[in-house]
Structure formats: C-alpha cells, structure tokens
Amino acid sequence: MRFVWAVVAFIIAAVMIGAGIAQRTVFQGPKTETAPISFEQDVPYLLIDGAVLNKLPGAQTLRAQAEGDILAAYGRTADMKAWLSDAEYASATLDDGGEIRTRIVEPAPIDEPTDAVADPAAEGEAAGDTAADAEAAEPGRNPAGSDLWLDEFQQSDLLIAPLQLPEGMSVLVAKDGTEPAPSKVSVSWPIESTTPWAGPLIVGGGIVMAIGVLLYILGIRHVRRSRGPRRKGLPLPPTEPINLAIEGEDKGVISAGAPTRRAVSGRRAFAILPVVAVSALMFTGCTPDAWPQLGPTPTPTPTQTVVMPDSQQAPAVTKAQADRILSRVSSTVAEADETLDATLAASRLDGAVLAERTTNYKLRGAITDRAPLPAIPTKSLEIILPQAFDGWPRTFMAVVSDADDKTANIMMLSQADQWSPYKLNYLANLEASTVMPEMAPHYVGATQVPPDSEFLMLAPQELSAAYADVIDNGEKSEYWSLFDVENDHFRPGVLEDRQRRLDDFNQTATNTGNLTFKAAPGTVAPVALATLDSGAIVAVHVHEMEEAKPTNADAVIKLGDNTEVKALTGVEQSASGVTTTFSDQVFFYVPVLDSDEKIQLLGYSSNILDAKVIK
C-alpha cells in the first residue's frame, strides 16, 4: 500500500510543479507592451511628448534604429519646443482617444516688411534668391552637447535608452540635425504580470514529492523486513574465508552478524538528497511576484515639502545639469589656455572673466614666464542656485570647493538664448570665513533681482559705484555705514597694494612724476539672485585705475621692469603718462531694505585688465 501512496504523491507533485512552472512560462503572457512611432516625411528631428511616454505606467524604454550615430536627449517640454522653434520636426502626441499621432510642425514664420507697391520683377528675383538660398542652406543644428538637455544618449545603429520621465518632459530623437531622423522608433513599457500561485504550487509540489520518496523508502524497508524464513544453507567447508574487515587477533574469523547500518543510512541519504536539492532550486527560482501578497498595503509616510508660489517658474538647471555644464566650461577653457585661443575661450566665457583671460593670453604671448590664470574649478559642486525662469536669458550661481587645496570659488553663468551654451561671466574666490545666506533649494530656484530694484538696501546697478567710493574714500564715503567693513578683507588688500606701488614710484619719481589711484564701476552689468530672506547675492564689476603722469615737460614715465605694462602698451616709456586698469569681480550679499544687517562681502578676485598710453 505504501507504494501506491508513493505513486499517488509523485503524480500530485508532478501536476503541482508542472502547473507552477506553466504559470511562469507558457501561461504568463508578454512582459512588455511596445508602441511604434512612425512618420512619413523626412525631417531632421522627432519630438516625443511626455504624454506619449506616460501612456502606460512604469519606466519607459526608447528604441531607435538607423544607420550611423543616433542621439536621444530629454528635457522640459517647453525647452524642447523652444529649441525647435525655428526648425521643421515631427511631433508625436496623444489624441483625445489616447492613441499616438504624429504630425509635422513647421518653423514659426518670420515677419518681414512688405513694400507698398508690388514689383513683379522684384518678386521674380526674390523667388530666384529663395531657391538659391535653399540650395545653399546651411546644415541643420546638431542637438548633441546642448546645455539645455537634462541628459542625452548617443549610440550607433541601434539606440536603447531606459527612461523614467514625467509628463512635463519630452524626448528629442535625431542624428546630426541635417540627416533625417530615425524612422524606426518605438517606446515600450513593462507589463505587471503576477503569478501569485506559482510559488506555492512549485514549493508544495516539492514537499509532496519528498513525501512520496519517503513513502517509497518505507515501502522498500517494509518488504525487506516482511520476508519469510529461508532454507538452511549447506554445511560450511573446514576452511572458511578470511574476514579482512577485522583487525587484531580475531582477523580471519567471519562475522555472522547483520551488516552495519552506516551503509544503509548513507544510501537513504543519497536517495533523499536529490529531492531536497530540486525543491531548493525551484524555491530559489520563484520571484516575489510568484507569491500571493497577504500582508497589508503599506501606507506612505508624509514628508515635509517646499511650498512654491503659483507663479513660480521652473529652475533654469538641475544640479546634475549644472555639474555637466561646469565640466564643459572647464575643459573648453583649459584647451583655450593651452593654445592661447581667445576665440575658443569666448565660446564659454563672457564679461569680466573673458576680458581678464584675453589679457592674460596677450601677456603670456609676450612674456615667457608669465603664469596662466587658475583653471576653472569643477571638483565639488557644493551649492547651486538656479534662476527660476522659463524664458531667456537664464542664470545660475554655483559654489565649488576643493577640499585638498582648502579653497572655494563662487561663480555666475548665463545662457543668452535657447541655442547658446552657458557662459561663465563672474568668478571669484570665497572668503575663508564666509557664511552664505539662506537660499532656496536647487529644485525650486530663485528669482533674478532687477538692476534697479528698490527693495534692497542698495540697487544692484548702484552697488559697484558705492563700493568703489568706499575703496577710495573710506570712512568719508557716504556708503561707509552700509558695508560690513570689519569682515571685508579685499579693501585693506587694495589699499596696501596701492601704498606699496606708491612707495616704489616715489623712490625715483618724487619730483618728476605723480601716481594716483581711482576706483570706478566696471563695464559688466551686475547679476543678482534673490535669497530666502528677500535679500540678494549680487555680482558686480569694479575697475581700479592707476595713473602715472610726469609733472614737468622734460620728464618721462619709464616703465623699467614693469613687463606687464610694457607688453600691453608696446612702449618702454611715455612722455604723457600711462594708465593701468585692474578688473575686480566682487560678490556681495545685499540685505532687504530696512534690515538691521549690512552689505557683506562674499568673495572677490582681481587681475590686470589693460594698460594704455595717455594721449
């Protein structure tokens, strides 16, 4: 009977295990759903709207196939459409029925003035010019490497990009902006296909199989024990075989006892072991979706959120985007520093930073041992404060620190329009004891304060002139009480340097020349971003001018060992005098109007900008 029950257990186990495996294989169904995106007309770009990407829940996988390099970039939908505003492209969206529809979007028309009287001959010439222009059209804009994208992927022949984008994001698919965009494009989503009884069936089948094996072993044991008496054997011969298993003096005597149980139990263990191993393997092959979820549904824990105003616009960049932009700026400027290429530097620098770099290239070309300016820092992005603005130009502030050198830098970068790269226009060293004001999180951003704001202690456009007056006049300046002069380490350094230059000049030209100093507002417009306490971080440009003039008609200003001024002016001496200009980039925290705080210096840098002969 035990054999019958063992066979029944084997059959039940086979059915259970087979049913469990079938649920995980032939009966499971597809694991993904794919939606193709097609368009008939050849256009250089394909824009996939966020609604298409979120047609089904879950992560998205984008696939595009074409010969050559394929690029896919994603960003905010508004930014994508702004970048494509002057180009023809295919747009994939969802219709009212939830189906994917693709249409061709034409570039926005450019308004041109029309003449009051139409001239047929002129119209014919214009038509000919239009045809000629079309033939000589410039290549399309390559989307690769744009600072507007949050991220991009580039592969050859077949592009597979895993995504997880919300509805406010879109994906741009293209090649190089000139060749037609890939026509074989699809988006796929995972399908949640659970088999909650596959695990119990497989494991239960393994247990039943183990029971069947046990019943089978018990049946064999019962049969062996229930055998009847055997016939007696023939008389043994006088000489008996030697039992080699016995040691010592009894060696050679045959033992008539029952066989040891060690071998029997070993055989049983050997029979059970495969069943246990198979069950364990089947158990480990079952993923969590192969089991029923009997526990309660977890309740999400509420977390503190930042309340944003209804009129708040999106931040200009994300932290990862800002980090990538800084790396691109640094690598481009490093190449320009090596080749002394001011044109290349201008592709990533602007304002005071570019002006100082250009002067340094000129000096390095004329002076052999002239040191380059420090490289653009990118090591550790500590603070990022982007402007919350959907239009252009856009700005963000960054603070980068270097733990090895124990230095920190503060900078402002701006993007002129949606097609331009971000350019670094302000760069300064942070004071060692600087405490930054409280700022909005990078995912919220800050508003840009207008230059003529009346809500700050000093308007940004007045700050440069006010600080220049404080440098020149000290306590006699009308702005002296507005600045935190006790924690200002830049102004004392300027005054000390002025005194040193004056002492050196007076050693040889006390009675024949005159050296004067003056600070004035620089030529670069200020940039200001608001802080949480309604104050602002303001970057301004200040010029420090040093003028050396002879005091009598017979005297001349000899430049001597002043290699910088000689290289910039191209003369050894001047009878009319020489003016040297230094460029100061200064960052301030300006409190709100009627605040008890004072304007605090955050960081500064100073480099020679120009030298000219007085005419």
Automatic annotation (TrEMBL):
Xref: InterPro entries: DUF8094
Q: Where is the composition biased (Low complexity)?
A: 115-140
Please report the name of this protein according to its UniProt entry.
Answer: DUF8094 domain-containing protein
Which chain regions cross the lipid bilayer? 197-218, 269-291
Residue ranges of every copy of the DUF8094 domain listed in the record:
314-612
Q: Does the keyword Transmembrane helix apply?
A: yes
Look up keyword rRNA-binding and say if it applies: no
Note down the stretches annotated as region Disordered.
107-147
Any Pfam family hit: DUF8094
The UniProt entry's coiled-coil ranges are none
Tell me the keywords, alphabetical order.
Answer: Membrane, Transmembrane, Transmembrane helix
